[in-house]
Amino acid sequence: MTTVAETGRRLESIARPKSVVQRNLNLIVELAITQFKLKYTGSALGYVWSLLKPLMLFGIMYLVFSVLLKVSAGTKPGYADFPVQLLIGIVVWTFFAESTTLAMNAIAGAGDIIRKAYFPRWILVVASTGSALLTFAINMILVIIVTLLIGGLHLSWRSLLAPVYFVELAVLVIGLSLLLSALFVFFRDLGHIWEILSLVLFYGSAVVYPFSRIPGFLQTFAGLNPVAQILLDLRHALVAPQIPSMASSIGALVVIPIVLCVVLFFVALTVFNRLTPRFAEEL
User: Fold this and answer.
1) Are 95 and 169 in contact (CB under 8 A)?
2) Radius of gyration of the chain (CA)
3) Which residue of 192, 198, 221, 260 shows the fewest CB atoms closer than 10 Å?
4) Which position has the higher pLDDT, 112 or 168?
5) pLDDT value for 79
6) What separation in angstroms does the CA of 22 have from each of 7, 29, 82?
7) Which residue has the higher pLDDT, 235 or 154?
8) Contact, 155 vs 238, CB < 8 A?
């Protein structure tokens, strides 16, 4: 069993390469892989759960929304290739939810290491996001396999925008993760609050149903949510062009969720840096 002191010495030994960038990158990779492995320690199926969990959630949601509630029935815009829309939504949401949940405890759960080893504290948060990113990469393999079997992934020039939306998602996730992890050190009730807010975001972001199902008078408000915007635009870029993009749904207001992601990132970075000196005394 690795002790806290051994972990601290290991982190310090990693933090000795030539450049700061290389040092920080090594720390992030080491911690992300370690967290990913620990998540499946003692599990009979191990890493297979990375594929099983989203696949099981996809099956349940497809049964409820497509078979029972007939969400995918009809020819309205936004209903094309609903199974693939649903799978992409679940995979993206799983990354978002897992990243923020792991990151929230990244600082609060590493008090002993923080007191025994010096390294930039934001690395703990980014590493937790990196651990979720490994799961996301495995889940994307699932998306490719399923779409090859059932069809529904339509690549075109619009697909070139998909990397832009993934970058936007990363900025949103890292910003939220930095903010949540810093505040959670001082306000432990934040864990319960975020659990409720995550549930609201899940159903308010059209993860398991087409965005077009949201009533017209609420679509503008829902479209200001960055998660909903990223999901809808990814579906538009990867699944079918007949699925309306967020720009065609709410017009010029589409810049608001994009700006929110950037503003949130810099606000979170500022808050995190200001609270960092107080972490050790609070943990």
Assistant:
1) yes
2) 20
3) 192
4) 168
5) 54
6) 19, 11, 43
7) 235
8) yes
Question: What's at 52, amino acid-wise?
Answer: L
Query: How many residues make up the chain in this entry?
Result: 283
Domain ranges of the chain: 4-282
Take residue 199 and report the two structure tokens written for it.
Answer: 């549930």
Tokens for 66? 């497509």
Percentage above 70 pLDDT, the chain: 82
Collect all residues with Cβ–Cβ distance below 8 Å to 215 and sequence separation of at least 6.
Answer: none
Asked whether the beta carbons of 143 and 215 are under 8 A apart, the reply is no
Q: Quote the DSSP letter at residue 110.
A: G
State how far the Cα of 95 lies from the Cα of 87, in Å rounded to an integer: 13
Closest CA relative to residue 257, chosen from 270, 245, 244, 243:
245
CA dist 131 and 148 (Å) reads 27
Q: CB atoms < 10 A from the CB of 270, how many?
A: 12
Query: Counting beta carbons within 10 angstroms of the beta carbon of residue 175, is it exposed (0 to 12), middle (13 to 18) or buried (19 or more)?
Result: buried
9, pLDDT greater than 60: no
Reported as type and span, the H/E element at residue 28 is: helix 20-39
- Say if CB 268 and CB 260 are below 8 A apart: no
